[in-house]
Write a structure and sequence with these properties.
239 residues; alpha+beta; Transferase(Phosphotransferase), domain 1; four-stranded antiparallel beta sheet; two-stranded antiparallel ribbon; 9 helices; Kinase-like_dom_sf; Mn2+-dependent serine/threonine protein kinase
Length: 239
């Protein structure tokens, strides 16, 4: 299998399991309607919520996932934005939010922008849980938006925050499967910026050694795991 188009494949898969749709309004403009009760949402989260509870408290319930997203979107953030919620229906389990025009972040070009966002989230004692870069949008003004927060949690532990970092790293490892040097550049830029912004970066990065995260390391290409571990060690040395 060729990994040259991993980003395109991931984006296509995301579209297939998406609970959101863009709706063009009669008066012009667009909104996004997310339906948390869609069967695909339950199916995609069932194995994760069941198996990975020991690492991260993933939520299967549509009601609770909706509430998590609403709460995250209601916060005021400094280094990124969230879409404005226009309406929520707790009976039909839907959120209608503003449509954000933009692009999916480029992992190499936007490494520090993503690090800023994740560092601020963690500084506020939150974790995202689902940190695929396809859950972010960069506008033409280079403003980063978090557009999916249904698995976000308050009062996150250092392990929960380490999960965020490692999952994003795992995704990046496959985006750069044929470009180890680009992966090294991404992870170095990301971790150094994260450590600069986050107040507890030392404790969080040390939590990457927790045995409960070993399953994610096993999914990462060995060459990329080695580069990641070296980058973490280097950042910790300078904190």
């Amino acid at each position: 299998m060729s990994f040259k188009n991993v980003s395109d494949i991931a984006a296509m898969f995301d579209k297939l399991i998406s609970q959101s749709e863009v709706v063009v309004l009669p008066q012009g403009g667009k909104v996004v309607i997310k339906r948390f009760s869609k069967e695909v949402g339950k199916v995609k989260w069932f194995p994760i919520a069941t198996v990975l509870k020991v690492i991260y408290p993933f939520e299967l319930s549509p009601e609770k996932r909706l509430q998590r997203e609403l709460k995250f979107f209601s916060n005021s953030w400094s280094l990124f934005k969230t879409p404005k919620v226009l309406d929520s229906n707790l009976q039909e389990l839907t959120i209608t939010r503003e449509y954000v025009e933009g692009r999916i972040p480029d992992l190499l070009r936007d490494a520090e922008v993503l690090a800023n966002a994740l560092a601020e989230i963690h500084n506020s004692c939150w974790a995202l849980g689902d940190v695929k870069h396809t859950n972010f949008i960069v506008t033409k003004e280079n403003i980063l938006y978090v557009v999916d927060a249904e698995q976000s949690i308050e009062k996150a532990t250092d392990l929960n925050k380490a999960w965020d970092i490692l999952l994003l790293t795992l995704i990046a490892s496959y985006n750069f499967i044929t470009s180890p040097q680009n992966f090294s550049e991404f992870i170095s830029n990301f971790l150094n910026r994260y450590a600069t912004v986050n107040h507890r970066s030392k404790e969080i990065l040390n939590s990457l050694n927790d045995w409960r995260l070993s399953g994610l390391y096993l999914l990462m290409p060995i060459s990329h795991t080695t580069k990641f571990n070296a980058a973490v060690k280097e950042v910790l040395k300078n904190i």
